[in-house]
Amino acid sequence: MIHVRFLGHIKSSMGADEREVSAMTVGELFSALLSEEPSGPAHGFTKYNTLVVVNDQEAFSASSEEARSLRDGDTVLLVPFSHGG
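-> structure tokens emitted (85 positions)
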């Protein structure tokens, strides 16, 4: 399983701090998360405005690495570009 954590408005959009998912690509992860997004106010959570941090070591734009594979045991942090400071 992949451990996915959410920050900022992504956490609000998902209605949770974190989620466990099966191994998949970054693009598949976003498709799965966006299809599960609880109904309510839209917060603009997309792959185009999200930074992905894998295993606290590598950061990249989700839209630039859609084909990247995520493996069992990975920890993924999703950070909105406008996360504040």
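The helical segments are 8-14, 26-36.
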